[in-house]
Amino acid sequence: MLAQAGRPLDIALRFLDPATQPPGAAVGELHVGRYEDAAALDRFVAGLSHVTFEFENVPVPALERVGRSASVFPPARALAEGSDRLREKAHFQRLGIPVAAHAAVDDPASLAAALATVGLPAVLKTRRSGYDGKGQAVVRTEEEARRALATLGTGLVMERLVPFTRELSALAVRTPQGEVRMWPLVENVHREGILHVSRAPATGLAPGLEEAARGHVTRLVEDLGFVGVMALEMFEEGGRLLANEMAPRVHNSGHWTIEGAETSQFENHLRAGLGLPLGSTAARGHAGMVNLVGTVPPLEALLALEGAHVHLYGKEPRARRKLGHVTVVAATAAERDRRLAAVERLVAGR
Amino acid sequence: MLAQAGRPLDIALRFLDPATQPPGAAVGELHVGRYEDAAALDRFVAGLSHVTFEFENVPVPALERVGRSASVFPPARALAEGSDRLREKAHFQRLGIPVAAHAAVDDPASLAAALATVGLPAVLKTRRSGYDGKGQAVVRTEEEARRALATLGTGLVMERLVPFTRELSALAVRTPQGEVRMWPLVENVHREGILHVSRAPATGLAPGLEEAARGHVTRLVEDLGFVGVMALEMFEEGGRLLANEMAPRVHNSGHWTIEGAETSQFENHLRAGLGLPLGSTAARGHAGMVNLVGTVPPLEALLALEGAHVHLYGKEPRARRKLGHVTVVAATAAERDRRLAAVERLVAGR
User: Fold this and answer.
1) pLDDT for A133
2) CA torsion, points A49, A54, A57, A58, in degrees to nearest 10?
3) Model pTM?
């Protein structure tokens, strides 16, 4: 989707991927190589002016190596800050961004301490490399907590299970010159740890909530000297926001912006990284997005849905894999929800 | 732009082009070859399910050859009907679509006859292969008409110069099953024979005019058994429509649909050709498009314009060559025109 956004601006993309058939191969030049392979990195970066990344598990040393000859955005520091959940939460707190009660867990002793300070129910998560619900367990009893510790290993964080009203994400973009623009707040619904549906602009926000979110994400990108698109995922609990995690990249909860915003997250990410003026982040109507996870309904059925904008990634189907998404846009939130429900029915096979 | 529209639907495109560096090379597989080269055509079509074209000067025999193993859309007949201006006008008249007074001109005798029936001022045009204002001359005196005949050669048509209020185009799409959808009427401004600006939906239409246009283009695509997108270019003269020419393909006056309509002409062209359900052709606000002809302003300046959606084609600059376009969309026609004026000022170097 970054390459799709770059094409009309005559910005060509080259991809480095360990896989031989990633979706990027259809829209740009592909280099197959490991992020740990210095020679592959050097071949990849030859002739490139800029390098960006679209998932967090790129090793920081790889970014540092390509950064010798190309301009890397977002900054590697954002990856480092976000790569450990404990460090990330400490970072949020330093910036005055509220987070849920939490504690480090590495062994039975620290687990006991965490149970005392965080309380139950809670979520035990690996501090590194988890995504889409992998590497985490909800624990409601001390026994469940001990079993989760045995399963997940060491290097964990225990977080209070927030009985949230909903999950919101603040999607913002920052330029090297320090201009920050935020898209309207996004409301997200997850299923089995994977984003299922996003709606934007989020409706029924308590007064001041959007401004609070803007303050949080702005402080975050400013502190990091961030360049490009950042998503800050939050829980709304009793009218306040608790930061869950940041994604220092274009984010699934921003896919609706392709049709639902004046400028998509992908285009503004490229504009920011290349030092070009940002486009408007205003909404175009009311948008909703449904992820296609594991399987894809027949294209004919998807396209028969009123107002459906279909995005297939050309990936082999696999359980829990994001294979595409469908966006609907409407003039009212009610009509958006009606269209969204039709997409969800089809995706659920009903 | 067809390939850009196909990508999210997992529809990959392959291009046959006599040029070695056409824009398509950046978004699909390129076969370099002449349309008259049977072996090149056979290699090109191997493995393809469908073949389409996006300009009129593809030889009909080439379409017939690839049509032996792939489904070709639009039908070659539409190319044949549109490839001769005289035949095209006769076709319009058979379908009850009004055209301006005209007559064939091949020599001084038929010129004299044409001057008597059509009158002056008039336009002398080559019947075949003209586009973007090439192969035509406005003539206001008999002497000018004689000189134009000497310059343009034989195989011409003389048309009454219509003192039109404006140029409109009816953009429609038809499926193999016969469903026809029309986008809102488009208002076009040409400069030196090349499309300069489009606005859609056209405003201030006399009652019944949009329905008349819908009737014309619908009869046309039905008569041709057409599949895909068709543009019917018309003059508005004293509250009535006179057909000028048809373009049996996605058309420059429909580029605004990428951001300005629910479904773009490119996506609906592919949907129609592949037998998939059509998407809505409703407008999303008020759109305006400016062509970038001959030169392109700096990308930074273009992107600094409020609401500008920039499309560069990656072509080498050349006089009178379309190198890209800029689309603006706004909630009102007045705001659209304000934004359009800013784009025009930049493009004009003011």
Assistant:
1) 65
2) -10
3) 0.94
